Amino acid sequence: MAAGENSVAGLGSLGLSEVVAAAQALSLPADLYGNDPNIEMIWAMKAYQHAEVYFNLISSVDPKLLRLTKVDDLIYTEFKANFGDMKIDVVDPEELKSEQAKEKWRPFCMQFDGVVEDFNYGTLLRLDCTRDYTEENTIFATRIQFYAIEIARNRDGYNSQIFNLGKPAAKETSG
Predict the structure, then answer these.
(1) Least crowded by CB within 10 Å, which of 4, 29, 32, 76?
(2) Where is the Polysaccharide biosynthesis domain (predicted)?
């Protein structure tokens, strides 16, 4: 089952007014909510939609040409300076989620507060950049972690394989 399929089904059960109300609620401070399952479902749905759009984008446009933010150069430079030894083609979840990793990521992420919109929103990240978003190949990360890793994957050529798979095969010419 693809990541977010349950969310898609759950969102379909909401009426238009409920979806609009939930979307408006997302603009309110998070501390006003406990663990409201409707809000969690909307956030999961937004993360899934973001992932779907991004994958379609790298499938149809050469990733080396993409700009994901206005500050891609800064994100890339800071990521390489702080995480230059991190393996990005296949990300080890411990590189994002262990206590040691969180201590290293926290200052990196916080430097983009006010610089990158929604820098700390939850976003889906593919672990193996040669594969699509699936339950086994997806981890929840912050938006700035997603940008940092995906900008590096794009610039360093790791996402080119996805783009090349989407290109039509060259036609043979008979001579």
Answers:
(1) 29
(2) 39-162
Largest CA distance in the chain: 71
Task: Give the predicted TM-score (pTM) of the model.
Answer: 0.75
Cβ neighbours for 116, distance < 8 A, ≥ 6 positions apart = 69, 71, 75, 143, 144, 147
Domain assignment present for residue 175? The answer is no
The domain that holds 108 is classified in CATH as: 1.10.3560.10
CB 152 within 8 A of CB 132: no
pLDDT digits (tens, 9 = 90+) for 13-40: 555 555 555 555 555 555 555 566 777 7
Contact 45, 11 (CB under 8 A): yes
In a domain, 55, yes or no: yes
Q: What is the pLDDT of residues 133-164, one digit of tens each?
A: 999 999 999 999 999 999 999 999 999 999 98
Both tokens of residue 102? 């969180």
User: What SS3 state is found at 13?
Assistant: coil
Q: What is the DSSP string of 64-111?
A: GG---STTHHHHHHHHHHHHTT---SB--THHHHSHHHHHHHHHHHHT
